[in-house]
Amino acid sequence: MPAAKYEFGRHETFNLREGWLSKGVNWMADGREIRPDVVTCDALGLGRNMVKSLGFWLEATGLTVKGRRGSAELSDIARSIHEFDSHFEYSVSAWFAHLLLARRPRSIWGWFFNEFRNGSFDRATCLEAFHRYVRQHAPNQTTQHVLERDVACLLATYASEPPSARPDADDPENISASPFAALGLLVKHAETGRFEKTASLDQIPLEAFLACVQLLCAEADTTSMPLTELISRKNSPARMFNIDGDMIDDLAAEASSVYRTRGVQVDLLGSTRTITMPELAPVAWYKLHFQRIGA
Questions:
Q1: Looking at the chain, which runs of residues are DSSP E strands?
Q2: Confidence at residue 70, expressed as pLDDT on a 0 to 100 scale
Q3: Distance CA 274, CA 19 (A)
Q4: pLDDT tens, position by position, 126-172
Q5: Which phi and psi (to 5°) does residue 75 adopt?
Q6: What is the Cα–Cα distance from 282 to 209, expressed in whole angstroms?
Q7: What radius of gyration do the chain's Cα atoms show?
């Protein structure tokens, strides 16, 4: 069986913009499709290529899935977002969307959070590393220009820049910030032009952490996992959220305290601390977040 192809360039060169995900989810919640036609473009206030890009972003962040007829339909998590946070006003919605994007296999997003270990870097270093990884692992190769656009889109999606530093600064669509920039996972230092992976200054929602652990356990076909695995494994909380072992210990302890009655438990087995998870879908943790905060 041939190796699965890598994904390049489907964002149409547009990074994710503030308001796009809510526009797309709310539009589709009314039974409509994301199509680059006149009606959809006018209703969403986006150009034709932007609507194509929006369709990609909805899929890439796990908000749409392929339905029985082959067309895109809202996922369970998207339907819950529409129910609890239709305007993406709560940060937990962006955290869940980020988590599903950062886990995306065979893409620059999965590569950046799982494979690219540089804590501080410039654009050229990031491009060179991604190019090298693609040469070594992708069965389908692409051009340097396409890779440059993917890296540019990634950096624009996660790191904010002042409007004056961007092209076409007079166009409000082109200077629209990405909702993922507010997560604080990537900082651009204006004085040097270098980028730095950072942990968020705001606390990661407990339920986003638990959804990440839940998906990790499902991949390993287990309900229990040593806390060290939450640091070292691919798609681990450490990689998805740029956090260290101490922060993982704190989040696991809080999760056990808050959700012990739901089956979350942290135990010391010999010298190894282990987290045990109930069999819940990630969307269940999203709903429990709003139950916990009383919203």
A1: 64-66, 72-74, 120-121, 186-189, 194-197, 224-226, 265-269, 272-276
A2: 78
A3: 39
A4: 999 999 999 999 999 999 999 999 999 999 999 965 344 444 444 44
A5: -80, 170
A6: 10
A7: 19
| Tokens describing residue 100 | 């599903």
* Count of positions (residues) in the chain: 295
- The partner residues of 65 in beta bridges, in order of sequence, read 73
Residue 125 CB: number of other CB atoms within 10 A? 14
- In the sheet where 186-189 sits, what is the strand order? 120-121, 194-197, 186-189
* Helix (H) or strand (E) run with residue 81 in it: helix 76-84
Helices (H) and strands (E) in the chain, counts: 13, 8
H helix runs in 159-244, sequence order: 206-220, 229-232, 237-241
User: For residue 260, what are the contacts with CB-CB under 8 A and spacing of at least 6?
Assistant: none
Cα gap 111→77, rounded to integer Å: 23
Q: What is the DSSP letter of 32?
A: -
- Domains of the chain as residue ranges with CATH: 20-197 (no CATH), 206-293 (1.10.10)
User: What pLDDT shows up at residue 150?
Assistant: 98
Looking up tokens 């010999």 gives 270
Low-confidence ranges of the chain (pLDDT < 70): 1, 160-176
Q: Would you state the structure tokens that stand for residue 130, as one six-digit string?
A: 């991604």
Please check whether residue 273 is in contact with residue 267, taking contact to mean a CB–CB distance below 8 angstroms: yes
| Residue 252 token pair | 């696991």
The pLDDT assigned to 176 comes to 59
Cα–chain-centroid distance for residue 130? Answer: 18
